[in-house]
Design goal:
Order of helices and strands: EHHEHHEEEEHH
CATH topology of the largest domain: Multidrug-efflux Transporter Regulator, Chain: A, Domain 2
Helix content: 40-55%
Number of helices: 6
Largest sheet: 4 strands, antiparallel
Number of domains: 3
Low-confidence stretches: none
CATH class of the largest domain: Mainly Alpha
Strand order of the largest sheet: 3-4-5-6
Number of strands: 6
Structural class: alpha+beta
């Protein structure tokens, strides 16, 4: 009895490089030093295509962003390992780099150290989506002619004052 083939979403290495904007040689180096690796199908030789899961691609993006922020490769490796072990949904997880430690922040604001004390809860914070709020506020804002509006208010106030004095 033949088993049915397993189908999964996967991304080729060339697509990963283009999506993350990383050179193939850089990605090959990260694979060689075991910072990241394709979990769907690895390479068995130079001519075989590697296939990456969606979580693998997220890890490559995280590595690139952390490296661009000045995070040393050893710390990046530890952060990726913690991210791989994390049971939290990637959709609601944020990575935070403070120049010395990498933290995972979950959807409830709990922050866990990835480097200094791996897995230890550090603190609880609230992250405010200021950019999102600005966009929402811009969508409901109206254009106002400030000078005209101020003049209209002064005139309205002076006419009310005038009316109040006349009726007294």
């Amino acid at each position: 009895m033949a088993s049915s083939p397993t189908v999964t979403l996967a991304v080729r290495t060339s697509v990963v490089c283009a999506a993350v904007n990383v050179a193939p040689s850089t990605l090959a180096y990260w694979i060689r030093v075991r910072v990241v690796s394709p979990s769907v199908i690895g390479s068995t030789g130079k001519r075989y295509e590697r296939w990456w899961s969606l979580q693998d691609v997220m890890a490559v993006r995280a590595v690139k962003a952390l490296r661009e922020s000045g995070c040393p490769l050893q710390k990046v490796r530890e952060a990726v390992r913690l991210l791989e072990k994390s049971s939290a949904s990637l959709h609601s997880t944020r990575l935070v780099w403070d120049g010395q430690d990498v933290f995972l922040q979950d959807q409830w604001g709990s922050i866990v150290s990835a480097i200094r004390k791996p897995g230890q809860l550090v603190l609880h914070t609230t992250v405010l989506p200021l950019g999102q709020w600005e966009a929402e506020t811009s969508a409901i804002a109206e254009e106002v002619a400030v000078r005209s509006e101020k003049r209209r208010r002064r005139e309205s106030r002076s006419s009310r004052t005038e009316t109040t004095r006349l009726s007294s």
